[in-house]
Structures are given as C-alpha cells and as structure tokens.
C-alpha cells in the first residue's frame, strides 16, 4: 500500500522543478503600466515607441506612453532600490546606489541602458535643484539619447535635455529637443511637445509664435482612451495658461487677468503644477496691469502652497524679490533673493 503513495509523491516532486522552470521561462521581465495590470514575460524587442513582451507563443506590444517602468529579470538589487528612491525624489540616494553598480559586469544591454538613464535623470534633477552643473547634466542626458535611440525612454530623455537647455536660457536649442517627441504616434507626446515648445517660445519672448503653438495644442484631441484623455486635458490646461501669459505680454493685461481667474476657479487646487503655473500667470498679468499688491498675493500663493514645483517656485521668488522692493519691504526682498539663490541657483530665474 505504501508504494503507490511513494510513486505519487515522487511524481509530484518530479513535477515541481518543471513548474519552476516553466514559471521562470514566462515571468522574466515586468512591464508596469500606468493604471493597468503589469505585463509579464520576456522583452523580445524594444524601440522608442513600444516594448514587445513575449510569453510562450503570445506577444504583447505595450506602447511607451502606457509604461510606468520596467523591472528586468536579473537586474541588480541596487537598480530596483534606485528606482524607488527616484520615485520619492531622493535623487542623491539613488545616484549613490547607481554609481555602485558595476555596469561592465551586466550582460543585458537593456539593463545597462536603464542604469545609464537613471544616472543621467538624477544628475538632471539635482542640477535643476542647484546641486550640479546644468550643462554637464544636459550633455550626459544627450549622450544617453544619442546612444539609445531604440530605448523606451528616448522621448523622455530628449524632453529632459530640452528642460536643461531652457534652464540655461538656450531656448532655440531646447525647442529642437522638445520637437522630437512630436514624431511619436501617441497624442499625449505630440501635444506635450507642442506645449513645451510654446513655453520655450514664451520664455524667449517670441509671443506670437508661442500663442500659435498654444492655439495648435488646443485643437489636439485624444481618442476614447481615458488615460490619454486625462493627459491631453492637462496639456490643454497648460496651453490655456500659456495663452494668458502671451496676452499679458502683448499688452492685454486686463483680459489676461480675467481669463486666468476663470482658469484658476476650475483648476483642482491639489494639482501642484497647474496651480503654480496658473498663479504665476495671474501674478504676471497683475504686474502688467500695474497692480503690484495683488501680484504679490498671487506669487505668495505659489511660495506658500506650491513650492514643491521647483521651476515655478523659482519664478515666484524672482518676482517676489522685485515686488517686495517696490512696496519698500527690503527685508522680505532680501529673504526671497536668498531663497532663490540657495535653492535654485541654476534656474533661469536666478540672477547670473
């Protein structure tokens, strides 16, 4: 009576390694999607527009705009930890961990590229916070983009180079990099490229060109995809705010004030980027309308509530430094200048 039991148990034992091998053959890489289930399998190909995941005979093509991040099979534990640190804004910790990874010992080209991108990304974020060299960070990210045109982070890399060029006040060059994602088949990337170009043109003082870019963005629409619609709606809001900035710069300050107040009224106050950008636009329009006291309140709104948006906070501080001086509050003007210098010395808003 014992023999069948032993045979049965032996069969189970023999089956277990097969299950383990089968599982290992499928659940290799993990493509984490935004607001959707992850895709598990082996990444069989990748380019700037999609990642193809193979599992058995099935192949799943995941558009880049749907990807949150990718966890690769066999990647160093330090890489996973670095991603977590980046997600929480701990760029110094992430960079230290990434620098300890021996990339020469990594066989996978995709894993090596992910390490390189995150190193360049952390360098960019630290530089824009004033803790590194903007030009060097830009060159580093540009090297990544040039070497990895087939990587799913290619569009993101070019956009970051554009951001760094704007910080260096090299607006025309920034526009060239912002334009690259316009080649993406994803409307989210297309509209973001147009809006980014508009803001660079605005920073360069090309108000008519910026206005044309923002108007173009307002005509772009997403399909029925809810995620895409939300992304496009956010860019529409940024384009609307940009249009108001153009109106103020072109001498229509009163119209600009009215329009931006309407935008603020329907903007979620918890949206840091839109809230900061809208109140900076209000402050700029009020300054153009020669209403310094009201402008002070608008920029203070950013200083108090939206300081977690670095570039927008830097702009608010630059304006506050001037406005406090205008209302004879030299102490507050010095305080704003010092905060700007200490926290955002690499910003285009900081004195050079």
Explained architecture:
- The chain has 352 residues and is an alpha+beta fold.
- Among the domains are: 25-72, SH3 type barrels (Roll); 74-183, Serine Threonine Protein Phosphatase 5, Tetratricopeptide repeat (Alpha Horseshoe), CATH 1.25.40; 270-352, Tetratricopeptide repeat domain (Serine Threonine Protein Phosphatase 5, Tetratricopeptide repeat, Alpha Horseshoe), CATH 1.25.40.
- The protein has helices at residues 2-26, 77-87, 91-99, 109-128, 134-147, 154-167, 171-178, 187-203, 207-219, 226-249, 253-265, 272-288, 292-305, 310-326, 330-343; strands spanning 29-33, 39-46, 50-55, 58-63, 67-71.
- A five-stranded antiparallel beta sheet has the order 4-3-2-1-5, with no helix packed on it.
- A hairpin with a 5-residue loop joins strand 1 and strand 2.
- The longest helix is centred in the first third of the chain and has 25 residues, at 2-26.
- It is globular, with a radius of gyration of 25 Å.
- Residues 1-27 have low confidence and may be disordered.
């Amino acid at each position: 009576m014992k023999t069948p039991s032993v045979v049965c148990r032996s069969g189970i034992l023999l089956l277990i390694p097969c299950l383990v091998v089968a599982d290992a053959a499928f659940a290799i890489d993990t493509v984490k999607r935004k607001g959707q289930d992850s895709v598990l399998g082996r990444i069989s190909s990748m380019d700037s527009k999609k990642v193809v995941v193979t599992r058995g005979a099935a192949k799943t093509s995941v558009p880049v705009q749907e990807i949150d991040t990718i966890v690769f099979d066999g990647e160093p534990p330090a890489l996973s930890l670095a991603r977590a640190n980046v997600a929480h804004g701990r760029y110094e910790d992430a960079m230290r961990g990434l620098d300890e990874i021996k990339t020469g010992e990594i066989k996978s080209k995709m894993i090596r590229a992910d390490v390189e991108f995150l190193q360049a990304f952390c360098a960019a974020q630290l530089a824009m916070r004033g803790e590194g060299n903007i030009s060097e960070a830009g060159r580093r990210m540009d090297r990544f983009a040039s070497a990895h045109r087939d990587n799913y982070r290619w569009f993101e890399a070019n956009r970051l180079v554009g951001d760094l060029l704007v910080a260096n006040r090299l607006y025309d060059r920034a526009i060239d990099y912002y334009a690259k994602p316009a080649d993406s088949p994803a409307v989210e990337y297309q509209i973001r490229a147009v809006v980014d170009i508009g803001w660079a043109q605005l920073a360069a003082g090309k108000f008519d060109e910026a206005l044309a870019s923002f108007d173009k963005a307002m005509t772009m629409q997403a399909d029925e995809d809810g995620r895409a619609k939300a992304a496009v709606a956010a860019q529409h809001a940024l384009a609307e705010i940009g249009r108001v900035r153009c109106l103020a710069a072109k001498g229509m300050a009163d119209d600009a004030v009215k329009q931006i107040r309407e935008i603020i009224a329907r903007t979620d106050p918890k949206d840091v980027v839109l809230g900061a950008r809208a109140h900076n636009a209000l402050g700029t329009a009020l300054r153009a309308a020669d209403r310094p006291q009201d402008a002070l309140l608008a920029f203070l709104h950013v200083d108090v509530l939206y300081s977690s948006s670095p570039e927008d906070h830097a702009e608010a501080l630059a304006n506050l430094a001037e406005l406090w001086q205008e209302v004879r509050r030299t102490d507050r003007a010095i305080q704003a200048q010092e905060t700007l210098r200490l926290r955002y010395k690499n910003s285009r808003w900081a004195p050079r």
